[in-house]
Specification:
It is built from 15 helices and 10 strands. By secondary structure, the protein is an alpha/beta fold. Strand 6, helix 6 and strand 7 form a beta-alpha-beta unit. It is found in: Periplasm. Belongs to the bacterial solute-binding protein SsuA/TauA family. It holds the Pfam family NMT1_2.
Length: 354
């Protein structure tokens, strides 16, 4: 019986094949590992916000209701708080993974040692207005009146920040008034109508509803690009989707997915009409007046970011506004370049051809 004896050349070929197979297997394993890292997590991602019923958070509502987060492979849970300061607290305490809120809060938090980055800008202005009650606002000089109460969403929120800036602009000390946290919606509406507060610093649709009923006088208004430019002296960023630095560094694929969903929603909103909004807006957000809501939307539409990009001089404007609230008029020491990045939205813009 003959026995097959492999030649030296054949043995070399077999060894080479084994090495090639091992290399291919190793390359495949590494590629699969990279794919797993890049794929968004299937676990629930908690997003904190402070008053989902307002137009301020409409891009977030749209992204969730239209299924854009789900399209990006994200399973999100929206946590609604009375105000943006409470949403930030939830993020700091680990009760939320990311949040939506006023950009200037990111600068304040960085100065305190908690670094967050804006992933996508939702509003090109704060969309805030100070409205005084025609029935309850004092007719004599405000400086001589000691019991003024101004309603805000929550203490420490962007609505209180805006009210303080307005008071300083009027030559008054913010310490001379009482700020009352009201949340939003019906509670804030009733507080104004019942005289529990003399004024509101708030966002739409609440302000427009009071305006259309001739119940208030507008004292300061950033619901238009011009109004915001006049008040702040430059482009003032409004609401943004943001995350702690640790999140963006460890969960890169989810960070990009979040930016994608938000940019997709902002693109949709550029052409959305009344029937489109009626399809996605929960009934309780209308405040029993669909007409006022739609009117408010048309007013603030121009302030919505078309693509999520942070303007280059926006962060400096926000820092300047923070300085105005300090006795020393000196801005907190922060690194503006660490407060945002446009890289995520640039990639999202390429995806959605913006």
């Amino acid at each position: 019986m003959s026995r097959f004896v492999p030649s030296r050349r054949l043995l070399g070929l077999q060894a080479g094949s084994l090495l090639l197979g091992a290399s291919a297997a190793r390359w495949l394993t590494e590629a699969q590992a990279q794919t797993r890292v890049q794929r968004p997590s299937t676990k629930t991602l908690r997003i904190a916000a402070g008053g989902m019923g307002s137009l301020y958070y409409l891009p977030l509502t749209a992204a969730e209701r239209l299924g854009y987060f789900r399209e990006e492979g994200l399973n999100v849970e929206l946590l609604d708080f009375a105000g943006g300061a409470l949403a930030m607290d939830a993020l700091r305490n680990g009760d939320a993974d990311v949040a939506c809120g006023a950009f200037e809060q990111l600068l304040e938090q960085q100065a305190l040692g908690f670094e967050c980055r804006s992933l996508a800008l939702m509003g090109r202005t704060p969309q805030m207005a100070v409205a005084t009650s025609l029935r309850f606002w004092p007719r004599k000089a405000l400086s001589s009146y000691r019991d003024i109460r101004i309603g805000v969403s929550s203490p420490g929120s962007s609505s209180q920040f805006f009210a303080k800036l307005w008071l300083i602009q009027e030559g008054l000390s913010p310490d001379a008034v009482e700020f009352v946290g009201l949340g939003g919606g019906v509670n804030a509406l009733n507080a104004m109508r019942q005289g529990r507060v003399h004024a509101l610093s708030h966002v739409d649709p609440l302000i427009t509803l009071l305006e259309q009923n001739n119940e208030v006088r507008i004292m300061a208004d950033t619901r238009t690009l011009k109004g915001s430019q006049d008040f702040f002296g430059g482009p003032m960023p409004g609401a943004c989707l943001y995350a702690p630095r640790s999140f963006t560094e460890r969960r890169g694929s989810e960070t990009q997915a979040l930016a994608n969903a938000m940019v997709h929603a902002l693109k949709w909103m550029q052409t959305a009409g009344p029937s489109d909004l009626a399809r996605i807006i929960p009934m309780q957000y209308w405040l029993d007046d669909r007409g006022a809501y739609l009117s408010a939307f048309e007013k603030v539409r121009e302030t919505l970011s078309p693509d999520g990009v942070m303007p280059g001089d926006g962060p400096a404007t926000a820092l300047g506004a923070l300085a105005r609230l300090r006795t020393s008029q000196v801005a907190p020491k922060v690194n503006l370049s660490l407060s945002y990045s446009n890289e995520w939205v640039r990639r999202a813009k390429q995806k959605f051809q913006l």
